């Protein structure tokens, strides 16, 4: 039995994390959920009922981020879900569906707060959300008076440091609309790190701190949340 268990652990570790495709012609939904105490099972039961309804309108589950620390700002829901819709009208039609509306009481019984934001990927991307890695979710509100140029300059200077620490921006989105709540940055980025320890070393690096003033001069608001990831594509 001991040998079989060891082999199972090795096999699990060797299993590749599935790649999830983000399409720049479709809409990515960022669903941030603050779950009521002891309501995890109720929320799962709600999702089991709501997804068959959403699938009528072409929804596709992509991934789940689990926020672990609010680095800048106070954005720290319990769960951040990523799903894809063919277009905005698909979501609107889903919202108007009577079968969905009947589930409102179950949703509201499980959640203290909900934010739903629609985004569009800047480029097509294939991403493998790895539970062993660390992810940074950044929301950027860009100043209209030269903020874009300053932000591009910041990321150009930051890129060599990201490479040095083995990090990479895996997804970049433009904000499209706020469907629920008050979160609509001009840009959202998801950056991948090998682990939390590497991420912490990067944050403590003096060169990163020196660039922070350039970043802040480009933005009117910034949120950064460190997350772990859980793949859920199908």
SSE arrangement:
Blueprint: H1 2-14, E1 20-22, E2 27-35, H2 40-55, E3 60-72, E4 79-85, H3 88-95, H4 98-101, H5 104-110, E5 111-121, E6 125-127, E7 134-142, H6 147-164, E8 168-180, E9 187-193, H7 196-204, H8 206-218, E10 219-231
Helix pairs in contact: 2-5, 6-8
Q: How would you sum up this structure, described in words?
A:
The chain has a single domain, classed as Alpha-Beta Plaits (2-Layer Sandwich). It is globular and about 55 Å long. Helix 2 runs antiparallel to helix 5 (104-110). It contains 8 helices and 10 strands. The chain is α+β, with helices and mostly antiparallel strands.
Order of helices and strands: HEEHEEHHHEEEHEEHHE
Radius of gyration: 19 Å
SS element count, helices:
8
CA(first)-CA(last) distance? 33 Å
Features:
single chain; 234 residues; alpha+beta; Alpha-Beta Plaits; 8-stranded antiparallel β-barrel; globular; disordered N terminus
Give a brief rundown of this model:
The chain has helices at 2-14, 40-55, 88-95, 98-101, 104-110, 147-164, 196-204, 206-218; strands spanning 20-22, 27-35, 60-72, 79-85, 111-121, 125-127, 134-142, 168-180, 187-193, 219-231. It has a single domain, classed as Alpha-Beta Plaits. 38% of the residues lie in helices and 38% in strands.
